[in-house]
Amino acid sequence: MEDCIFCKIAKHEIPTEKIVYEDGYVMAFNDLNPEAPVHVLVVPKMHISNFDDVDEENFVYLEKIMKAIKEVGKITGISEKGYRIINNCKEYGGQAINHLHFHVIGGTKLSSKINVG
Ligand code: 5GP
Ligand code: ZN
User: Fold this and answer.
1) Collapsing DSSP states into helix, strand and coil, what is residue 52?
2) Is the minimum distance from the CB of 97 to ligand 1 under 6 angstroms?
3) pTM above 0.90, yes or no
């Protein structure tokens, strides 16, 4: 999709923070403003606006994202102790970039509270 920053990053049209993992379906790269020692964004290479737009036709991307998240966990060394996966969906979910992405956050002990503030 034109003018979508994560589409451009996924197509290598613009540079980004360190790329942690990439395959034919998915790219994972460090968040520009990390909120923990490890903060990686995992995005599909096809433009899907948000989690609510995942459907039977594009579901393969979700499967690939889930596999990629596990790879990211191994690559960044957070698998053993654990990590958090976050998806902000649409305006009320706090989504700022309208290209599906999962935050993979770890490298420290996170609060068990879910932040709704
Ligand atoms: P959202 O609120 O949409 O779930 O999160 C968007 C995330 O994308 C934020 O954590 C923000 O720091 C990150 N972000 C925004 N623009 C860029 C960018 O150009 N490059 C990278 N690597 N991360 C970005
Ligand atoms: Zn996009």
Assistant:
1) helix
2) yes
3) yes
